Request: fold
Amino acid sequence: MAWSTSNRSSRLPPHWKTKIVPDILARDKHTCQLKIPGKCIVKATEVDHISPGDDHSYKNLRAVCTRCHAHKSAVEGRQAQLRRKALGKRPPERHPGLSDEGYKGPSGDRPVDPTARAT
Ligand SMILES: [Zn+2]
Reply:
C-alpha cells in the first residue's frame, strides 16, 4: 500500500500560482532560502511553507530551488510516516466517559519540586 500525496496541492489558495508564488520569489530575489549543501542550485523557482500546513501567509513562505524543495518534502513525508507508525494506526482517543478533572494537561506529570516554594 502506497501513501498518497495527491491531495497536497489541493489546499493551496486559488491565486497561489498567479500571485503568491511570484510575490515570494520577488521578495526573496529568486534565491533559494534553504541552501541545502550538496543539493542547492540557488536559483529559486518554487515556494515552500516554512512550517507545513495551511498557513499561506507571506511570513510562512520562502523561495526555494526545486532540488532543496524536493529534498525537504521527502524528509517531511518520511517523518510524517514515521510518526504515524509510532502512534499506531490512529491517534489515541480519550474515553468519552472521562471528565476533565483527571486531566492535568501536558505539565501534569512534571514532578513537584518541594524546594521551589513561593516566598
Ligand atoms: Zn536550494
Summary: Residues 11-87 form one domain. Residues 32, 34-36, 40, 64-65, 67-68 surround zinc ion (CB under 6 Å). DSSP finds two helices and two strands in the chain. Residues 11 and 53 are 9 Å apart (CA to CA).
